[in-house]
């Protein structure tokens, strides 16, 4: 995929990112990482999604090269196949990446437990480049809004989805239309999350809260609790090690589904596949 980065828009976004109220800003390690990636991308913008660019991993979510065979594809496949009631695997027989397999499992679980169906408005907090939206939007007529704190994610996602799905996308730095139901895909910054949150039917977070400090997680849980629709569902999938830090979920959230048995999707530890579960998933109402 050929990718064009408008660096003047990026600088504007980066300024907004840096000057956002502290509670909406990304963790400092993200800001350093972003700086490093940007310096490489200024030379090689097309490599924004490569798995590795000069030692710097590809942008958020590990890259979108869905045809790149993942070393552990065959081991992970039976787990995903069992969940795949929507038969997404059959639609993309040549896609063999971890990013794709994760998305197939997640979309099926969103459908079974989080009320994913046509007409819903989805808020994906820390949605990266739109990894899940790429495979969800061809199946369901929904409005999908990525809300992210990092300028490079906010810049990349609307372009990636526009190119991958050949649709028009809405973004805070583009059309800037707050009527999210008019669009299949929108991207909005965290410091404007309240434009989206009260309308969302599904609020999801995948592998992003885990990277924030406990205080920020609590801040987001309370913000969601105080501003969500009464019957909104909350879909959280994060790394086991971080979740067991005792996240304080609002007391009135009722767990509808929990999966502690997700196989290792976090890669290898010391070069050895880890069979114990690494990912934790919970759906609340
Ligand atoms: C590991 S990536 C996961 C991306 C995506 N959820 C996925 O599964 O492909 C973490 C994401 O969190 C975003 N992020 C970092 N700090 C954040 C914050 N404080 N609030 C919201 N998003 C944040 C990053 O820009 C990035 O998109």
The level of helicity is: 25-40%
CATH level 1 class label = Alpha Beta
The set of bound ligands, ions and cofactors reads: S-adenosylmethionine
List low-pLDDT spans: none
Secondary-structure content class: alpha/beta
Rounded average pLDDT: 87
Q: Determine the number of helices (DSSP H or I, runs of at least 4 residues).
A: 9
Strand % is: 15-25%
Task: State the strand order across the main sheet.
Answer: 5-6-4-3-7-8-12-9
Question: What is the total tally of β strands?
Answer: 12
SSE string: HHEEHHHEHEHEEEHEHEEEE
CATH H-level name... which superfamily? Vaccinia Virus protein VP39
**Sheet with the most strands?**
8 strands, mixed
How many domain units? Answer: 1
Which descriptors would you attach to this protein?
eight-stranded mixed beta sheet, 285 residues, globular, 9 helices
Task: Kindly describe this structure.
This protein has 285 residues and is α/β, with parallel strands linked by helices. It has a single domain (2-284), classed as Rossmann fold (3-Layer(aba) Sandwich), CATH 3.40.50.150. The protein contains nine helices and twelve strands. The protein has helices at 7-19, 28-41, 73-83, 88-91, 98-113, 131-136, 151-165, 214-227, 240-243, and strands spanning 52-53, 56-57, 121-125, 143-148, 170-171, 185-189, 202-206, 233-239, 255-262, 268-269, 272-273, 279-284. The chain has an eight-stranded mixed beta sheet with strand order 5-6-4-3-7-8-12-9. A two-stranded antiparallel ribbon has the order 1-2. Helix 8 links the parallel strand 7 and strand 8 (233-239). Helix 3 (73-83) runs parallel beside helix 5 (98-113). The longest helix has 16 residues, at 98-113.
